[in-house]
Amino acid sequence: MGVLSDIPPMSASLHKTVVLLSGGLDSSTVLAVAKRDGFAPYALTFRYGQRHELEVDAARRVAAAQGVIKHLVLDIGLGELGGSALTADIAVPKDRDLASVAKEIPVTYVPARNTIFLSYALACAETLDAGNIHIGVNAQDYSGYPDCRPEYIRAYERMANLATKAAVEGRRALRIHTPLMTLGKRQIIALGISLGVDYAMTTSCYDPAADGRACGRCDACQLRRKGFAEAGVADPTEYADALSPSLTRAP
Which CATH number fits domain 13-199: 3.40.50.620, 3.40.50.300, 3.40.109.10, 3.30.70.270? Predict the structure, then answer.
C-alpha cells in the first residue's frame, strides 16, 4: 500500500481532507458531508486500546462504502494508560438519565483522546499537503466530554496553525471542520439519511455483548435510540436488551 507520501498528486479541483472515522454514527455522517461538500477524503481510524474491535470493523465498512481515497488504521497505546471505562477495567455506566448526561464528565471520557487523534490527523494532513480535517464532535449530545466543545476545537485549530510548516511558511492554513457541532442526534440522522449513509454499517455502543449486539443501555446507545426515534427512522441496530428500537418510530 505504501505510505501517505507515496500517493501521487490529485487534481487541484478537489480539496483534500483527513476525516477522523470511528465507525460510529457521527463520524460516518461527517464523511458523507465532506464528500457532499467537494472534499477528497482520506479516512483515519485508531485502534487505541478500546474495549472491542467492532468500531474498527465498522470504520472499514463505512470507508469502503463511501469510497475514501485511502483509509489508515493506526495503533496507539491509550489502553496502557487506562483512566477510562473504554480502555480499562472500569464499569460502563448504564441506564443513566439522559437529561443529566451532559452535566458531568463521565468515566467513558478517554483522557486527551481527541487531542491525540487530532494530532495524528494533523500529521497526516501535513504529509498529504491537505488543508482540512473533518471531525464529528457535537456540542449538543457530547455526553460531557470537554474535548468536543467548540472552544476546544477553535483553540486546537489556532495551535495547529502555529505548529505546522505550511502555515508558518504562509502556504496554507489548516481548517478543522465540525459540521455536526450544533446538531442533535435527530438532525444528524436526518442529514445522514439524506446523504445515503447506511447506519446499519455503524456502531455506537460502549459495551457490546459478546455476540456484537449493542447493549442498548449505555449513554451512546440511549442517545442513538433517542435520535432514531425522534427522526422517525427505523434504527437498524441489533440490541441485546429486550426492547425493539428498530421497530420504534416517533409518533
Answer: 3.40.50.620
